[in-house]
Amino acid sequence: MTGHPTTHPTAHRTTDAERALRWLAEDGVTRTGQGTWYDAEPPAGILTSEDLCNGLGSMAFTDVGLDLADRLRVALGLMDLLGWHPLVTAQVHTAHLGPQGPLPADLLWDGYRRRLEAGPACEAITCSLWFDWFEYAPTAEEAFAEVLGNDRERLQPGAPEPLLRRARRVLEHSGPVPWAAKAPALRAAARVPALHHAVFRAVLRSHHDTYGSIDPAAGLALLDGLELPSDTERLAVLRSELA
User: Fold this and answer.
1) Torsion on CA atoms 228, 168, 157, 3, rounded to nearest 10
2) Do residues 161 and 221 both lie within one domain?
3) Half-sphere exposure of 203 (CA within 13 A, CB side)
4) Within a domain: 240
5) How far apart are CA 9 and CA 6, in angstroms?
6) What's the CA gap between 129 and 171, in Å, rounded?
């Protein structure tokens, strides 16, 4: 199975965040500091990031002046700028399922993978995966395959750190993904000592998440193959519950 190579934004390309800043400026909104914005439209004034999320955060896909790919870039850029907010993150999922969708797959999923591989954690992306894509059954398998499942054969000891970072973040938020869809990636990750704690967290959340999906016997077998400290918090209780 062909996986996705570790990817990085090129230096000369306008970033999605920069594109989103231009889009906001076209509406009279400019950034004035960390979490503060100036809105030149009457009544002019200072906005917080929360104000901006509530006002413009969900509107990228309503801009008829942008083509679909640029709307997606603005939406992803708003996630970079504003962080997790349901109006900001859910618009991507909604557009993918709506009359404008499906969204361009390469641009969509490469955007998610790059952010999952980046050094600083991107809460907007992990929350978007968990609450929008993974908890909604019709998109859970597609999203999981794109952000990790298709790359499971690359999960080996010595794999590049960006790939391992992506795997950790996806696994730890994969509780709602149907067990059959994620089990092959979990087994592959269990071969990599650096991912053992993430596999544990995946099994834990698969069992305890409100929408969690797990095969108890298979989950217990995975735990038995992990090298974890015996005093790992919740490990003993989880073993008992699965047994």
Assistant:
1) 150
2) yes
3) 30
4) yes
5) 11
6) 11
**Mind listing the pLDDT tens digit for each residue in 67-101?**
999 999 999 999 999 999 999 999 999 999 999 99
The span from the CA of 45 to the CA of 29, in Å, is 10
Domain that holds residue 94: 9-103
pLDDT single digits (tens) 143-168: 999 999 999 999 999 999 999 999 99
Cα 122 to Cα 116: distance, rounded to the nearest angstrom:
7
DSSP state of 34: T
CA atoms within 13 A on the CB side of 84: 12
Least Cα distance to 61 among 28, 24, 35, 100 occurs for: 100
48, 57 in Cβ contact below 8 A? no
pLDDT tens by residue, 110-135:
999 999 999 989 999 999 999 999 99
Q: What tokens does 32 get? A: 């004035």
Count up the domains in the chain and report the number: 2
- The tokens 């967290």 sit on which residue? 201
Q: Which helix (H) or strand (E) holds 95?
A: helix 86-97
Q: The tokens of 152 are what?
A: 């499971």
User: What 3-state class would DSSP assign to 159?
Assistant: coil
Q: For the whole model, what pTM was predicted?
A: 0.91
For residue 201, the cross-strand partners are: none
In whole angstroms, give the CA distance from residue 204 to residue 236: 11
Residue 112 belongs to a domain: no
Asked if residue 1 belongs to a domain, the reply is no
User: Between 171 and 4, where is the model more confident?
Assistant: 171
Burial class, 132, CB count within 10 angstroms (exposed 0-12 / middle 13-18 / buried 19+): buried
